[in-house]
Amino acid sequence: MTVWLLGDQLHPESHVLDDTDRVLLIEATAVAARRPYHPQKLGLVFAAMRHARDALREAGYAVEYRRAETFGDALDAHFAAHPGDDLRLMRPPSYGAADRLRELVTARGGTLSLVRDDRFLCSSDAFDEWAGDDDSFRHENFYRWLRRREDVLMDGTEPAGGEWNYDESNRETPPADWSLPPVPRFDPDDLTRETLDWVTERFDTWGERSGFAWPVTRPEALDALDHFVEHRLPEFGAYQDAMLGGEYALAHSLLSSSLNLGLLGPREVVDAAVDAWHRDAAPIESVEGFVRQVLGWREFVRHVYRRTMPELAETDLLGRSRDLPTLYYDAETEMRCLDEAVTHVYERGYAHHIERLMLLSNFALVYGADPHELNEWFHFGFVDAFHWVTTPNVLGMGTFATDAFTSKPYASSGNYVDRMSDHCADCTYDVDATTGANACPFNALYWDFLDRNEGTLRGTGRMGLMYSHVDRKTDTEWDAIRERVAEVRRLARDGRL
Ligand SMILES: Cc1cc2nc3c(=O)[nH]c(=O)nc-3n(C[C@H](O)[C@H](O)[C@H](O)COP(=O)(O)OP(=O)(O)OC[C@H]3O[C@@H](n4cnc5c(N)ncnc54)[C@H](O)[C@@H]3O)c2cc1C
Ligand code: SF4
């Protein structure tokens, strides 16, 4: 029997490693050549795998590290050396992956035993038992149920601190004299540098490799967690929705890539935050806000994805087909907010949640871009992108291609950006204008979006207030809005927005 670890299953104490001393890791180049991935994404995954190989060998495992073009080629070599071997694998969360891998193994005379994925707190059986056959599940209910079950931030049967949700206190913008908390850098060692060199020579990529500073080992990921809890968790809650010019991290944890590669487990991350509250080192608003993201949203999207695939990846409730504006690819734009967000992605393979949701997705949403093209863009551009997490976030939360996650789209005008950031003050466009040559492109697109999608959206969830504003607009106003929208689309197509 051999344990097969995929490149995102790298926790050295995973239960899949129990009672074994033989491990297989496969570095397959064909997967990495499928898209023009960010060099930091490919460098991160391959460097983390190579470091895990060395750490497991040091811990006494016999690790077979096979480099090949495809999984099939590597498995040919494996079964030539170990005919009829049984491979034990943690069930991968991405749709269809387990079946595809099993076919490859059985075609070579082996067997594949799938075991529970311990990178998540809530198993598929537990989620299905909670949700039943009803697909109208909502995050808030799931979150409260899992918090109770896991006894996280609970005071008996009541939420610790008295509230389940501190969102109201968590929408602040930092004062002008805020001193930004420090962000750790994990400078590449020789092995990581060599891996990054190989990646940039071997593959067509999109993005810069020079700023690479991601944790690639378990000790580095633990340092990243400690650093976050000590320096940024205290202000995580208050400023989690804020955006500042020139700042990519603010008080965010930057832990998603480590969690998604298995370098950190969700329970230890949640426990570290709760412990900070017990030590009076972070306020309840921040700790609850963080627990909500990791124990709530991360687990929720994984299961809703599982329950709604493959339809999730194919449908679009709003039937859009426009090309994604070229500014997503070259960051050439006068729109200060999008310039900032796309540049963050290009330089680091990262943008924080509100940039992803309220800038990068929101613009594509109101513009009417094909959500599947946006999904592709997120997949190749982000270091933490994996199908099970990117697809539900982009197609569900980000663009409302499905209503499985939210009852209404996260659509907004420039007003939201102005409230939550300092971008508008530095922008060529006027955030207070909806029409005319200098008007913020978000504004006319927003009204046009509501108008175009009225048939689908007017009756949904909490859209009533927005449509009461739509109803008050005169024909003359609509003519000016449509004229501005046509101009914005022309500029976006020509790369001059
Ligand atoms: C359009 C869009 C695309 C996204 N794509 C990805 C993706 O490819 N990979 C990814 O891991 N997350 C994705 N997210 C979720 C979230 O934005 C990132 O997890 C987060 O920004 C990562 O940065 P951080 O570690 O600093 O997170 P923090 O803001 O510090 O949050 C803490 C942790 O909570 C978890 N988390 C928070 N929100 C979500 C969520 N909605 N779904 C899953 N986990 C969540 C992450 O593990 C994150 O590390 C996406 C969100 C949107 C709106
Ligand atoms: S004015 Fe509009 S385009 Fe400019 S930064 Fe503000 S929201 Fe973005």
TrEMBL record:
Which is an annotated Pfam family here? DPRP
Family annotation (InterPro entries)? Crypto/Photolyase_FAD-like_sf (IPR036134), PhrB-like (IPR007357), Rossmann-like_a/b/a_fold (IPR014729), UV-DNA_repair_photolyase (IPR052551)
- The segments labelled Disordered in the record are 159-184
* UniProt-recorded name of the protein: Cryptochrome/photolyase family protein
